[in-house]
Every structure is written in C-alpha cells, then in structure tokens.
Amino acid sequence: MNLHFNSVSLGYGNKVVIKNFSAKLNAGSLVAIMGDNGAGKSTLLKTIAGLIKPLKGKITNPKENRIAYLAQQCNIDQTFPIDVKTLVKTGLWPFCGLWKSQRSYYSKIQDALEMVGLTAVATRSLDTLSSGQLQRALFARIIIQDADLILLDEPFNSVDCKTQKDLLALIAHWQKQGRTVLTALHDPFIVQEYFPQMIQINKQNAFYGETTQFFSDTIHHAISPVISNSFRISALKYHLLFE
Q1: How far apart are CA 200 and CA 239, in angstroms?
Q2: Where is the ABC transporter domain (predicted)?
Q3: What stretches of the chain show up as alpha helix (H) in DSSP?
Q4: pLDDT at 76
C-alpha cells in the first residue's frame, strides 16, 4: 500500500517530536526508522497505526487496507494466563470479534505457528517462553492478520541471533509479497544489510530516502547533522571489534 505524509508534525500534547515531515512510500517498501531514544520512532509508528493523531498535517493511506502493529516486547504482559496459540488467535479479533467462530481460520493459525517454528510449543503458557519465542509468537499473530502495512517497533530487542535471522527472513518475505513494512531499529548494520529505505529522525527533523544515501561516504558532510551520535558510537565499536 502507498503511504503519504503531508507536512506532518507528531507528538503528545504540546510536545513535538517530528516537525513538517513529508514523504511518499510506495507499496512494497521496506523501511527502517532510526533515531536516538525519545526521537519519535515509536510515536511515528503509533500515529501511522491510528493510535494517536498527528498534531498537524495528514497521513494518507487507503482505508480498505489492513494495518498490523507490533509494539515493543517490553509492553507485553507474559503473566497473562493464555497459551501461545491463543495469543496468535487474538490477531483475528479485528475481523472476527471476540465471539465469532474462528474455526475457518484454524489452518491459517497452524500455518503461522509453523512459519515461526512454534508448532511444538503452541499449548505452552506465555510465562514459559524465552524472549525469542515470545517474539516469534507475536510475529505469527501478525501473519494471520494478512495486513498490507506492517509496523514493527524494535522487534529484535532481547532476542537471540537465530530468532533475529529468522524474523528478518520473514520480513523480507513480506516485502516480496508486496506488503509495506516499517521497522523501528537501533542497529545500523541490520539497517544497511536488510532495509533498502530508511527514515532518520534527529532533533525534530525526519528525513526519508535510500539507505545507501544516508551511509554513503560521498555525502558524509551533507548528512552528518542527520546521523545521530549513537550511530557513530555503534559504528566505532563495530570497527574496533571486527576490523
């Protein structure tokens, strides 16, 4: 689905985190969102999802298209007394409600669990899962929503390397299906390797473009005010360790 930002300002109450952002994202875009903590990454995703309203401007997307939103895992209560399969089923609530039969979706639920490698733990309670298993379950919940626009907020926090690799492959699969995926991230090396486009947020300014443009040495001086200090520190640590 196409997604248009028309001079959008975002924030809470009188606090503005992004000013006058305009961009056009084509259907099938795979976009990383980067910025320091508190820069506005989560606010941007919540606004696109319709959970909060823009302070100014307009975000345009086709109303008939479905949106799936995954919050940061720290917002998930693992003590809630449900099993993995039931958690995945909650992704159907927007379409079935709480009481409508979900039997027609049984095969989709099973397929989603298989895609994320959780068939064997489908009946286990959430409090028995590792962080990686919980995130796989939440990705299965997204799968059954069959959304045109997928919004992910720091989906790789506290997950193991195998889970991260598997979920990145699933995100790439969604893009090949023509779905638009926006993902808030803090790891610049994941962004460079897997995400062709990115939005960089810095000091209330948001910039959208090709990822290679943001990290190209040839335009270093042009984008240096945009790339955050946290990126520079992460990059330095990476080079010291691996080069």
Answers
A1: 22
A2: 3-228
A3: 41-49, 84-89, 93-96, 106-115, 131-143, 161-176, 188-194, 211-215, 220-223, 229-242
A4: 79
Q: Which residues contact 78 (CB under 8 A, 6 or more apart)?
A: 126, 127, 129, 134
Contact by Cβ (8 Å): 37, 200:
no
Question: Residue 171's pLDDT is what?
Answer: 98
Residue at token pair 């209330």 = 204
Provide the 8-state DSSP code for 50: T
pLDDT in the model for residue 103: 66
Question: 10: number of CA atoms within 13 Å, CB side?
Answer: 30
Q: Which residues, other chains included, contact 162 with Cβ-Cβ below 8 Å and sequence gap of 6+?
A: 132
Domains of the chain: which residue ranges?
1-65+150-243, 77-147
Q: How far apart are CA 23 and CA 38, in angstroms?
A: 21
Mean pLDDT, 10 residues at a time, the chain of 243 residues: 92 92 96 94 95 94 83 82 93 67 78 97 96 96 95 95 97 96 95 96 94 71 46 40 36
How far is residue 17's CA from residue 202's CA, in Å, rounded to a whole number? 9
Record: fold of 1-65+150-243: Rossmann fold (3.40.50)
Residue 89 has which token pair? 């089923």
User: Residue 11: what residue type?
Assistant: G
